[in-house]
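Q: What structure does this chain adopt?
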Amino acid sequence: MEQAILAAEAGCMSVSPFVHELKAFFDSEYDDGGPNLALCLEAQRYYEQHSYTTRVKAAGLLTAGEAKSLAGVVAATIAPELLQVLSQTKEDVVEVEKESMFLRSHINGTNGATGGIEARSYRDNEIGWRKDFAKAYGGKGEVKTKQLPNDDRM
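A:
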């Protein structure tokens, strides 16, 4: 979420959170811990809540179920193979809406996965961003943070 916040502060038009790690597409034995669908919902709700114009374009979907869960996201990149599977789906709109994280959160009157996120700022606060990113998602961000240059500031 930290990257999504920083992207909005920088005025980015969109962010494309990968639902799966890239390696999951090329290594059938690799387990990335499952799809991170909640990040798409969390980012889109954050942008709406805090009036950012940045939009979410979900990326890295592997299954039709994931695509249905993300029905309602502003945009998504979908591989041709998955698009073919989706084109053959016979479910009506009501059934797909029941599977959508986005539509369920509106129907239930909740703000989705977040319940509302207090506004944060990482502008001119690289150290704060690095620390929060490193702690994110149970520490999974720490592995990625160590790949950043100048990590000696942590």
